[in-house]
Design goal:
In chain A, 7% of the residues lie in helices and 59% in strands. Chain A is mostly beta strands. Chain B is α/β, with parallel strands linked by helices. Classes of the chains: A mainly beta, B alpha/beta.
């Protein structure tokens, strides 16, 4: 914790050139929108609380996340630091988390749209859900299977090269091509669970006419925590904004794991972990939306050392009375396929506030 | 009765490389995905939210509702993405900002621009295929609806 706060302070102070007279600090986006000669810092964050219940466990409620970030910009440089208090008692079958941590802390140099460098701790550029990551921004409360089961780590500690291009047209539609290559290093001492050693990954996506997005990401690492196995994961993802205020989104994750044997017996968690989801959101009203997500995939229980398959149907009613307030009411039905566990239902009400 | 008034896109007169733009390029600039043109850094300004002008620009150029835009900019803020354009309360202040800041880009209604037109500001024409359209052109694609004052003595007629 002390190391986390020290790193946070160092990174933020690094954005303040000695003797800078023009350093602006503020809460809203305007502090970054108004171009000036000196650095500008926006302070922001969000918090959310929930009450949830399921067939498997007693109900629980309370503050889940309190997140604060500082975003400093000066010319082509950016320093972004984010700290988080997290208390997730996950009745949906994912891992509980109770901790205060440095969620992200990186320095970015972006001399042009086509090329930029980011170094530090940042959200893993893998697919759609993982890089965005903040539950308050998502259509649903519970994440899809590959996020809940952490098929890839939430963050990387390392270096990323990234940029975007604007080809004249693709299939007759205006287009944007984004790319990312990253490498990192993880171990438990750096608060990188399930990782040991060097990691590599990349992402390539295309956006067409501001309505369609299609991308592919790849990632490889060594997982020391479980079987000391090498994992290779890939995701094909897409989004389409359709007429009648409909948005469709999907991610198909493939994860291949080296087989690990104990006493010539293949261990139970060496199975590959593939999953897929497809989600539909209807912005029925400017103050609310309805969303449905179907998910299917491998479901590892690391304590019981078993792997099942799970199908999940998630229904979410989102209410946005103000842009900075998010209320979500959600029900999900979980079907465990060929498992000793019974199917179960999960209910959750979540309220979030951004500032 | 509603009339369709052109939305005039203006830029600082000293900004090189941006005398015309397609709607997709304007979208990329005002969504923060593109921050420079021909090596020149672009700073975008826009009117305050909740006006017919702003809603029309969001719908036609950015292809989003104002509520979608609020969500988009929140995602950008929490992921270290680009900041939104600076919101300016009045047309006069917006024109002043564009005139004063090299690399500035903004938009306002035709009537306001005609009234506030000044040195230091140039009009960006919109390229639509092979055609280069200014706000006076009948086929100019950027327009917003404004209430038309009733004429004395009878119903309004379209000219």
């Amino acid at each position: 914790m002390r190391a986390t706060l020290s790193l946070l302070a160092i990174l933020w102070l690094a954005a303040s050139p000695a003797g800078a007279e023009d350093w602006r600090v503020g809460l809203g986006p305007d502090v970054l929108s108004e171009p000036g000669d000196g650095p500008a810092t926006r302070i922001g964050g969000w918090l959310d609380a929930s009450y949830e219940d399921s067939d498997e466990q007693p109900s629980v409620g309370g503050l889940n996340h309190a997140n604060i970030f500082a975003d400093t910009r000066w010319r082509s440089f950016q320093v972004f630091v984010e700290g988080e208090y997290e208390r997730e008692t996950d009745l949906a079958g994912y891992e509980d988390e109770h901790q205060v941590e440095l969620e992200q802390g990186y320095v970015r140099w972006q001399p042009s749209e086509a090329f930029g460098v980011r170094a530090g701790r940042f959200n893993t550029p893998f697919g759609w859900w993982v890089p965005i990551h903040w539950s308050i921004l998502m259509d649903s409360v519970t994440p899809p299977l590959h996020v809940g089961k952490e098929v890839v780590p939430e963050q990387q500690i390392g270096l990323e090269l990234a940029g975007r291009f604007f080809p004249r047209s693709v299939l007759g539609l205006d287009s944007e091509l984004g790319w990312s290559l990253f490498a990192g290093y993880g171990q438990e001492g750096l608060d990188q669970d399930r990782t040991e050693g060097v990691t590599f990954g990349g992402d390539l996506h295309v956006r067409l006419a501001e309505r369609y997005q299609l991308g592919v990401s790849g990632y490889t690492q060594r997982n020391r925590q479980l079987d000391d196995r090498r994992e290779r994961s890939g995701v094909l993802y897409g989004e389409a904004r359709l007429p009648w205020n409909l948005t469709v989104r999907s991610e198909y994750v493939v994860s291949r794991r080296d087989h690990v044997y104990e006493a010539d017996v293949l261990t139970g968690l060496s199975r590959d972990a593939d999953s897929v989801y497809a989600a539909l959101r209807w912005d029925a009203h400017r103050f609310g939306y309805l969303a449905y997500r179907f998910g299917y995939g491998e479901d590892d229980d690391e304590e019981l050392f078993t792997t099942d398959e799970r199908a999940v149907h998630t229904f979410t009613l989102g209410i946005l009375p103000r842009p900075d307030v998010r209320v979500k009411l959600e029900y999900s039905h979980n079907e465990l396929v060929d498992s000793a566990r019974s199917d179960f239902d999960h209910w959750v009400v979540s309220v979030g506030y951004l500032f | 009765m509603l009339a369709a008034e052109p939305i005039v896109v203006i830029a600082n007169a000293e900004l090189d490389g941006l005398d015309e733009a397609t709607v997709p390029v304007l979208r990329q600039l005002f969504l923060g995905r593109r921050t420079s043109v021909e090596g020149n850094r672009i700073h975008c300004f826009e009117p305050a939210p909740g006006t017919p002008l702003r809603r029309a620009f969001a719908r036609i150029v950015l292809q989003r509702s104002e509520r979608d835009l609020e969500r988009y900019w929140l995602e950008q803020a929490l992921s270290g993405g680009p900041p939104p354009p600076r919101e300016i309360a009045s047309d006069a202040e917006l024109v002043q900002k564009v005139a004063d800041r090299r690399g500035a880009l903004g938009y306002l209604g035709w009537e306001a621009f005609s009234r506030l037109r000044r040195d230091g500001v140039k009009v960006i024409r919109v390229r639509d295929g092979d055609r280069l359209l200014g706000p006076e052109h009948p086929a100019y694609p950027l327009r917003f609806a404004v209430p038309q004052a009733p004429r004395p003595g009878g119903r309004n007629r379209e000219e």
